[in-house]
Model the fold of this input.
Amino acid sequence: MDDNVKKYKKILYSLIERTQHINFELNSPIQHATVSFYKKMVSSAKSVLHLYNDYYNACILASHMLEGLILLSWMLDKPKERVRQYADFGTIEFLEGLHLHPEEKDDNLNFIKKNNLKRLLKKNIQGQELTDEVLLNPKNYYNKWYRPEAKDINDIVQRLTNNGNHPEITNIKQSYDRFCAYKHYAPYVMMPRYGTSMNIPNCDKFLAISISLQCLYITFMYVNLYQLNKTDIQDITQKYSRLTAFYPMR
Done:
């Protein structure tokens, strides 16, 4: 186990060092989406590496990375529609704080009308008269950018992996279920670590490092897919493939 941790960690460091300062092309919405997710993944992966004495919390960060990978995969499954929906939903989320910034009301309303954000309204609201008050009320919109297509993260995973699609998500599905336990104080991860004075061995370190590498690597492959000038990381890919049993991009 320790040898594998060292190998995963070494590759993770290499991937971060090789790619964190790349001046990626940002000429399209899809490039903006993939690069922004990758930058966040790099930040999280660095934090995982710094939490060398607290791998429980490192696992929580890794679960956050898993969610990001799942959401990005969902977005890129239908990029023309979903990248725009993801970006537009930021305006809807901003409506929650509009009472703190009333001077932004007209700009937000104009953006909603200009970009047809009424399409994000709940179905029962769309049949009503769409006054300015209706359009500016965040409660009239779905509360997640991926709704109503999918209910939640688990539903997204199920839809992505139907008929053998998205092997990269199929292979992390079980990991996601397990990592959620760290976030939600599940007894089977809490009790052995904080509910006893006994030193009970666990594999938190391996889980946090290995999943962080997988998420970062797959997200980078997504970034590279949409860049005109590809970044060659073949040497990292070869080392990565020896440690993992799946290939994230087909």
In short: The mean pLDDT is 91. Residues 55-77 form the longest helix (23 residues). The CA atoms of residues 85 and 234 lie 33 Å apart.
